[in-house]
Every structure is written in structure tokens, then in C-alpha cells.
Amino acid sequence: MSDNDHHDGSIEKDVKSKPLWRKSVDAVLWFAKDQWFLVGIIIVIIISSQVQVPPSQQATKQVVVSYLAVSIIFFVAGCTLDSKVLLDNYAKWKQHLFIQAQCFIMVSVLAFAVVSLAAMNSHFMEPWLLIGLVFNGCQPTAMASNVLFTRKSHGNVTLTVVEVTIGNLIGPFISPLLIKMYLASGAWYTEAIPMQSGGYGALYRRVFMQFGLSIYLPMLIGQIFRRFFPKVVHKVFTEWQVGKFASLAMLSLLWQTCDHAFGTNAFSSIKASNMVFIVFISIVNYVLWLAISVGLSMLWLDRKETISVAMCAPMKTLALGVPLSFLLFTGITGLEESLIQIPMLLFQILSMALASITTIGLRRWVDAGEKKVQPDDDEADAQAQESVEKT
Description:
Elements: H1 3-17, H2 20-34, H3 36-50, H4 58-80, H5 83-90, H6 93-118, H7 127-137, H8 144-152, H9 157-183, H10 201-228, H11 230-239, H12 245-263, H13 272-297, H14 303-312, H15 318-327, H16 334-373, H17 378-390
Helix pairs in contact: 2-3, 3-12, 4-10, 4-12, 5-9, 6-7, 6-9, 6-13, 7-16, 8-9, 8-14, 8-16, 9-10, 9-14, 10-11, 10-15, 12-16, 13-14, 13-16, 14-16, 15-16
């Protein structure tokens, strides 16, 4: 028996000899380390529920955190993504149509179907909460969390970044039209909306300014840094692992949203039965949208691109949803605005938690697929080694 075989046997024996309590502790520690972002979400919610920024500083906090956090995330993406690969992924128009159609059309249709079923009992749900569920289903994909979870799932991060930029570029045009279309159904809950007039000029200016300064500009600067300072970028983001600050920036985004909701006492204005329903239907919606998008993707996309679909199609952004809640309708109260926002906020929290957990299974699925396609013969190994040396 070789030394390696003896060593492996000793390790296996040590693992088997561990008591049950030690195995349980090891499992909990592994989960906490792997899902530290989920743990961070829980901590952020607890902190924001107990201590909030003063009302007079809420607007400043929202602007600073929204711009700074998203800018950090996409600057990191710009520094770590190869420019040629990025351009190649922008050219994948079939994938773009496939993902954006699911995000805007498939998801919004299913969301409206759920709202229509819930509205069959006019005494059950608050009308503005139902409108908020329609709003959520019509939003473009989330921005920062998609990139982080795709990387954690070993998916095609570049394709995800491309889909995020495309989705949030066309979202300000498509989302208001979808919302107006679904709310023109004449259902009883739409009677709460006052008569509306005016255009979307203020909405477009605000949204495009935010996306331009917090997504496109930081990503462009990151690409410039990668082009002219490759050694510095490699050292900072590979050896020092500074890229993990993007995850902390994502948590700060979630904190500012939760802080606003708790600070305005939005949750206390909702009946317990309505709150339970929104939490339940948010989980069901996410799982259903995820299952459909993954199932359709597996028919023609590889595993890495399927991960991108899984992280883009079912996720929704608050960056457009919140401005829409007070720009799309005029003459509504602050409480009514908060009621529109609550379904979107709860969906984002729950979908991020669920997405974080699903990364465990998804990355194993991707890694298993890569092992299957790896050649075993010596010639292929030599070719692979030669390719690595050239790189």
C-alpha cells in the first residue's frame, strides 16, 4: 500500500469516527461559510428593524448608497471581465431575446394570473398590494445580485452582466407599458387609482441618470483599468480578493431598502393575513419562475448559460420599481406608495435568500457537467497544458 493510500484511508477513518454532534457542527459551520451572504441578509434585516436612519436623512442615504454600492459592484465586474468575451456575449442576440422575453413577458403574465386569482375575493387583499404585485412582475431583472450569484454558481458571469445592462436599459420603456396594460383590465382593485395625466419624462431622466452613472460608467472605467493596468488588477482582485467588497456593497443596498421600509412604518399598516400571503406567493412565484426558465434553457443552452438565465429571469430590481411607484401615478398618498413597494421589497429579500441557497446545487451541477466533458487521454492533457502555458 502506498503512502497516499494509507493517508487517504486514515482521513476516511477519522471522518467516520467523528461523533454525531461534531458532524452536525461541521455541517453548520460549512453552511455558514458557504452561505455567508444569506447570514448577512438576516443580520441586515435585524439591524434595520431595530435602528433606522432619521427621516430627514433618508433621501440622502438612498442616493448615496444606491449610487456608491452599485458602482462598486459594476466597477469590479469591469475589472474582472475580459473585454473580448464581453463583446462576444453582447453579440448573442438569441440569448438576449430568450432571457428578456422570459423576464418581461413570461414572468409578468404569471404574476398577473396570480393577482387575478387573489382578486377574486375583493375583501381579502388591499388593492394597492395587488397593484404592487403587478408592479413586481413587470420589472427588469435585478442588477447586482445576479452577478454575484452567477459567479457563486460558476455560471457565465459575462452573459449575466450583459443581460443586466440590456434589461435595465429597456426596462424604463417596457415596464410602464406592461403595468398600464395589466391595470387596464378593469378589475375592482384598479378603481383605487386616481385619474392620471402626463408623460414619463421625469422617470426616464432619473432612471437613466442612475443607470448611466452607477452601471455603465463604472464598468467602462473598470475595463480601462483592466486594459492599461493588468498586473495591478490581477494582484488586487485575484491575490488580495478585493472583489469580495462587491458582496458587501450588495448587502448595503438591501440595508438601505429595508431601513426605508421600517423607517416609514410600512409593514405595520398591513394586515397579518395579507403579509403572510405576500410572503407565501413571493416564494411560490420565485420557485415557479426559476423552474420554468431553467427547464426551457436546458433544451438548448449549456449549463453555464443556463445559470445566467436562472439568475436573470426570475429576479427583479427595486431600482426601477421604487421610482415607478411614485412617478407612474399622481395624486396618491405616501402610504399608498409604500403599499406598492412592499411586495417588491419582500420579493427581493426572499428571492435573494432563495437564490443564495440554490447556488449550492447549481454550482455542483455545473462542475459535474464540466468533468464529463474533460478528456482523459494523455494527448488531450498535453494540449490543455500547452493552452494554459500560452495563456
